[in-house]
Amino acid sequence: MLNNSYKMLFLLFMMIGTMISISSISWISMWMGLEINLLSFIPLMMSSKNLFSSESSLKYFLIQALASSIFFFSILLIFLMMNLKSLNFSFINLIFLISILLKMGAAPFHFWLPSVMEGLKWMNNFLLMTWQKMAPLMIISLNLNYNFIIFCIINCVIFGSLGGLNQTSLRKLLAFSSINHLGWILSGMLFNEKIWMNYFYFYIFLNFSIILMFKIFNLYFINQVFLMKNLNLIMKLFLFINLLSLGGLPPFLGFFPKWMIIELMMKNNSFFILLIIMFFSLITLYFYLRLSYSMFLFNHKNVKWNTKNIFNLTMNYKLLFMISFFSLMNLLTMNFFYFFF
Amino acid sequence: MLIQLCRKVLTDQVNNVRALRTIHTTVVNKTFWEKEKKSGYAQKYPLTSKKMILDGLKEFKSELNLWKEEMKEKFESDPILVFRPGEIDVIWKFSEEQDLDKWVVTSDKDHNQGLSVASFERSPAGFGLFSGNLSSELPIDGRIKKAGYCNIKSMRQRKSFKRETSFDWSTYNTLVMRVRGDGRPYLINLSCEAYHDMTWNDIYHYILYTRGGPHWQVTKIPFSKFFYASKGRVQDKQVAFPVDRVTSVGFSVSGRAGYDGNFSLEVDYIGLEFDPHETEDFAYETYKVDKYIVQT
């Protein structure tokens, strides 16, 4: 990344755009931040040498530009409504929310996300899944419409789980998992502002651990997981831990944000939504588990004379080691941390 | 007067240069925009719109059943997780008559651009036989400068309700064919119409060298070897073959440079394999020049 100075520039501007959106006091400056973010992210997406990334960036640009224009239109309607007091606010709120949900890739406006992610490399995918959602989520949290958000949560969770069932591409799988997690984040947003942010931070960490693993071993499709020269036993175990953590299985770290949201929703007596999102998160766990068990059971070959010492490994492997260890061990630690602070 | 003279000199120069240097005799398309997929060679629909609607309604029930099957498959079946070396997943096998219906035969005679004939039928041995006669004789009216080609191409895959789709070969990396040719080199065309209209004419080629004679040959070509061309023109900036949006497979044969005459290619099956020993991503390099060097 640091080899190319243009990448540093665009990354910086992408972050600046999000920061402008998050810390602004006016809707128009929020829109401005979103646009700066979009315009800086597109050159980052086009940086690879093949056709697919430019196709993905074109699709991304069209969708986001459409969403931005509808967002700006709804802002103007809000200003008009404030002056005239005769317009219907719930309709304006609906358009506002739809444009922002389209930006994020939340169901039922998610159809662009798997095909855009299919053309990008892992680091760009990571940015698309995590950083690009930050500003839109912040904007939604300032202007909620409970009925519509509940409809959106249920859709996210259903499409995110059922869409990932018959996928062979790891990128599309993670796209659907991202849609599913977005459902959980939005359900946390209904009750408490800090809870969804905590889930989001954990989600960034979990995503990072999975994507780092896929990037290091250059895995893009599920049949590449079985090649012997890519993965030894320890790395397979780490992938197993990280996948199950992303699926939200205790005793891994990924269970903790889901646990927080479950407790919050139980206290607020919203059992029906909770039942639906828990049920469909089980389906996402199924397709992570399918990837993991096939990795261990089918075509299993292990190089037994691997005598590498942990301390002599390269930085990438050390990072993987640390992250996976954190995912494995730190559920209770995080619990205590949040309890005391 | 002076301006007109300059203009004449310039256009003359351009025309002369064009006559000397171009290989293709069709006009170079200077824009990316293509008006239609078939680039002017489309045939008119045989029926009126009203008749087509009524015709379509008759197929509603069968299409609905097909849709139900697709939904069932989506929810019930799992994707294939393991691909072992040596396992070939057959895409087309020409053992029955209806398999041949999915392929279209074209030659330069179709639009009066030549005199070659071709057919794709069942051979006496029970396989698909692409055969005919190549003739590089030009039509008399002089519009066409070169002739003598025949092709077969598989028809576009369609889902229920005639929606167009493409093959997803992302989990494979080799194309395998069992063929019996007559010694000619044939051109394999993998057409990949992706999302945008710029890619409508993108075809990835490789050459199938055949041995004459009664023995079969199994040809394995990794996807990394296919080179990128559009409307017959090999592109400067080569990219790897997009494995997840393949629309059709085709074979071409040409009778130029004195190789007129009969040809025949017998195909048993066309399939795919995942070969874990194939580690090459892409076989062709594009020499990327540093930004401070002016490209000459």
UniProtKB/TrEMBL annotation, chain A:
Segments passing through the bilayer: 9-34, 60-82, 94-114, 134-161, 173-192, 198-221, 233-253, 273-298, 319-340
Reactions accelerated catalytically: a ubiquinone + NADH + 5 H(+)(in) = a ubiquinol + NAD(+) + 4 H(+)(out)
InterPro entries: Complex_I_Subunit_2, NADH_UbQ_OxRdtase_chain2, ND/Mrp_TM
Annotated keywords: Electron transport, Membrane, Mitochondrion, Mitochondrion inner membrane, NAD, Respiratory chain, Translocase, Transmembrane, Transmembrane helix, Transport, Ubiquinone
A molecular function GO annotation: NADH dehydrogenase (ubiquinone) activity
Taxonomy, superkingdom: Eukaryota
Enzyme class: translocase
A family per Pfam: Proton_antipo_M
Sequence similarity: Belongs to the complex I subunit 2 family.
Entry protein name: NADH-ubiquinone oxidoreductase chain 2
Automatic annotation (TrEMBL), chain B:
Domain NADH:ubiquinone oxidoreductase intermediate-associated protein: 92-267
Matches recorded under InterPro entries: Galactose-bd-like_sf, NADH-UbQ_OxRdtase-assoc_prot30, NDUFAF1
Membrane-traversing stretches: none
A GO CC annotation given for this chain: mitochondrion
MF (Gene Ontology): unfolded protein binding
Top-rank taxon, per record: Eukaryota
Any one GO BP annotation for this protein: mitochondrial respiratory chain complex I assembly
One Pfam short name: CIA30
Localization in the cell: Mitochondrion
Main location: mitochondrion
UniProt keyword annotations, A-Z: Chaperone, Mitochondrion
Family classification: Belongs to the CIA30 family.
Official protein name in the record: CLUMA_CG002237, isoform A
